[in-house]
Every structure is written in C-alpha cells, then in structure tokens.
C-alpha cells in the first residue's frame, strides 16, 4: 500500500501563513478552517506562546518502556507497522501513536526525518497535547475526538509550521473508551486526502483487530502466556458468557452464564442447594437447578463439568482472574485493558452482584490510587464509568489544564454535579 506524493490541495502556503499572522494580531478567523480556529483559541487560552521555542522533558526510558508494555495498543503495533509504517518510511514520513492523555508512545518511520522531528520534540515520551505544543493533528484529534489533518501554518507553534500531519483517535471497540491517537507526520504529503484516508483505514483495522482478538481468544490478548492451556471463560462486559476451548468458541444465555461464573469462582465446587441460594433470594427447587445444569453440561466440552459437587474437571480461567492477577501484581494499566465492563451486567443473581460490585470497586480504587491520567480517562470514558463523578473529578484534578481533553472533562464534571 503506497502513499501519495501529490501536493496538498489546501490553500497555498503564503495564504495560510498570512491567516496565522492575522489571527495572532487580531484574533480574526478569516481564511481559517473552523476546527483549526477553535484549536488555536484553546492553545492560547492555556498559555502557549506561539513564537517561543518548544521546551519540555520527555519521559525517561524506563518510564516510557513501562507505559508501552502496559498500553493496550502495544498489541496492535505489528499491524500498524505492516499497514502504515513501512509505506510511510518509503515515502519519507513518520508514524506516531499516542496514549489517551496525549503522550507519544511510538514514533517510527524515515530515520532522517525522525532526527529532524526530534528538533521540535516530536519523539517518544513527549507530550503532544494542544496545551504543550499548540495545534497539531494527534493532540487536536484527541481534543475533539475525531480525525483531523493540520497543514503547515495551521500549526500554531512557529517551530511546527514547516510540518503537516493527519491523525485519528483510536477507541476500544467494546467500551468506547479512547485509547490514543494514530498520526502521520511529515511534509505536505502527510495531510493530503489520501494520507488522511489511509490513517482512518488503519485505525479501523486496529479497532477491528482488537474486537476480533477479544471475540476469538477471550482474554488471551491481555495475558497470552497465562491462558495458553485449558478453557477461557469471558464474563466481563457482555450480556452472556463465552467459553473458548482450543479452536471452538461457545456463547451462553444468562442463566448458563451465571452457573459458569459461579463454578469458575469456586475452587471446591458447589452443590445444587448452594447454587440455588447463590442464584436467587427465593426458594428454588434443587431438582429444577439440576435439570438446568444437565442442559448446560450438554453444551460444554465432554467431561468438563463434574458432579457431587458440581465443579470443573479441567482448567477454566476467567477474564475476572486475569484482571485480579494484574491488580495483585500492581499492573493497573493491564488490568484496565482487560476489564471490558462489569461482570455479567444483566444478571440479578445475588452472588453475581456481589462478585460484580467487589471487582468494580477494586478496579476503581486501584485506578484512583494509581494516579495516571491516561488510565483514568480509559476507565471513566466508558458506558460503566461515564456517570461516576468521583472518577471524573479525579481526572480533572490530575490532568489540570494541560490535557487535550480538559474542556470535555470539565464539562462532564459540571453535568454530573448538576444532575
């Protein structure tokens, strides 16, 4: 897949530079695209000096390595390299991937261009939010949550005006949380419609890969070494459980999902009476439950479910266990990536509710204690976190005004406080 070297059809360079100068002198929006004008206003309101040399201290190697290892987009880097980076290097362009807080995690492509880009601090570990470096494709894409392209003088910081770029945000396909941004940077070629479309297509492929990996291999995406053998049970986020056994994947209804969850949580197994109590506050004939378990056994791999008491004969590892293991080891970032939602959210069984609430509370507390803005955003910006005022207040306090999403976070806090 090649990248076009055709000249950008946008306004000529001199016209764009005149529009930038007019804005800096009079705050006029004449001949400026609305999304660029709004970005300029945001950048100035946060104290950016457009004519000053960019200065910041990128992350140290050890801190950057830790961020990369725990970030969910690390697993997608081979795909990004095959679809975009190889062609970008041939075309003399750079590919960058940031986290949701605007920190560049990877910058790859043409080696000579990478050395030039380092002169404006476009390098791994650097903060490329609008507040740190002004209008730029990855930072602005995160701020407005949509794909953007920025051509030369549309950058606000003088040091960045020789460059052009296109970027798009990447979202978790299940939770909708923003994971980061994918960016293409270089000369005029980086902001052409062709390059813009190629970035969007690569993002779509990455999001599709994340979804397919989750559907076909359960939580193996998060802990491949720990679930290579046995059976993998997925109960987080969806309406029902999924059991992956070798090459087969089985989907279950809610009652069977509840039974699978409870048995996976019991090391010593459970009797029919114990299961009945765990599933309902009302008296439930154990003979009815035994019939339900009999139907469940017929859907499972042969000889997986044993009786007296009911228990699994083989190794059944759930995605709950994966999340707990990450938290036990202090790997909060990996836990956030593995936590795709509450445990069987449609279940009203007392024991399931208890498991759900305990795990969710532990996740919240771990994230709040960890104090990482990227993790807070990835957890809060989901269907299960969007109404959690404490999370959003913590994100607002931690990020301050230098986050690409400070305006949207503040608006969310105000809405939740007023609700």
From TrEMBL:
Which regions are flagged for Basic and acidic residues bias? 8-25
InterPro entries (alphabetical): GAF-like_dom_sf
Segments for region (Disordered) = 1-25
Indicate what this protein is called per its UniProt record: Transcriptional regulator
Q: What lineage does the source organism belong to? A: Bacteria, Bacillati, Actinomycetota, Actinomycetes, Micrococcales
């Amino acid at each position: 897949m090649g990248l076009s070297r055709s000249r950008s059809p946008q306004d000529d360079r001199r016209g764009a530079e005149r529009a930038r100068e007019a804005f800096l002198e009079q705050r006029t929006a004449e001949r400026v695209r609305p999304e660029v004008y709004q970005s300029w206003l945001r950048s100035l309101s946060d104290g950016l000096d457009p004519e000053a040399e960019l200065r910041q201290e990128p992350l140290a190697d050890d801190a950057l390595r830790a961020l990369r290892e725990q970030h969910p987009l690390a697993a997608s880097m081979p795909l990004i390299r095959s679809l975009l980076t190889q062609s970008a290097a041939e075309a003399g362009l750079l590919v960058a991937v940031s986290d949701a807080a605007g920190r560049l995690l990877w910058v790859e492509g043409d080696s000579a261009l990478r050395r030039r880009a380092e002169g404006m601090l476009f390098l791994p570990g650097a903060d490329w939010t609008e507040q740190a470096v002004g209008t730029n494709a990855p930072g602005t894409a995160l701020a407005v949550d949509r794909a953007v392209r920025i051509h030369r003088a549309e950058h606000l910081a003088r040091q960045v005006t020789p460059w052009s770029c296109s970027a798009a945000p990447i979202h978790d396909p299940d939770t909708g949380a923003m994971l980061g941004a994918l960016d293409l940077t270089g000369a005029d070629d980086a902001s052409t419609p062709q390059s813009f479309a190629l970035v969007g297509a690569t993002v779509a492929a990455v999001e599709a890969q994340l979804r397919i990996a989750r559907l076909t291999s359960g939580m193996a995406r998060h802990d491949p070494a720990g679930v290579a053998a046995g059976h993998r049970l997925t109960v987080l986020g969806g309406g029902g459980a999924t059991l992956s056994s070798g090459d087969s994947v089985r989907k279950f209804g809610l009652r069977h999902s509840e039974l699978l969850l409870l048995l996976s949580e019991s090391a010593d197994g459970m009797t029919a009476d114990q299961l009945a109590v765990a599933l309902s506050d009302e008296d439930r004939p154990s003979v009815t439950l035994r019939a339900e378990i009999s139907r469940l056994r017929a859907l499972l791999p042969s000889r997986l479910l044993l009786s007296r008491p009911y228990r699994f004969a083989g190794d059944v590892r759930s995605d709950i266990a994966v999340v707990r293991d990450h938290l036990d080891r202090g790997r909060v970032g990996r836990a956030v990536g593995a936590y795709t939602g509450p445990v069987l959210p449609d279940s009203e069984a007392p024991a399931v509710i208890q498991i759900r609430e305990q795990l969710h509370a532990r996740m919240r507390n771990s994230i709040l204690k960890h104090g990482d803005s990227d993790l807070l955003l990835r957890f809060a910006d989901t269907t299960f976190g969007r109404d959690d005022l404490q999370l959003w207040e913590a994100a607002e306090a931690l990020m301050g005004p230098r986050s690409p999403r400070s305006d949207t976070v503040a608006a969310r806090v105000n809405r939740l406080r007023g609700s």
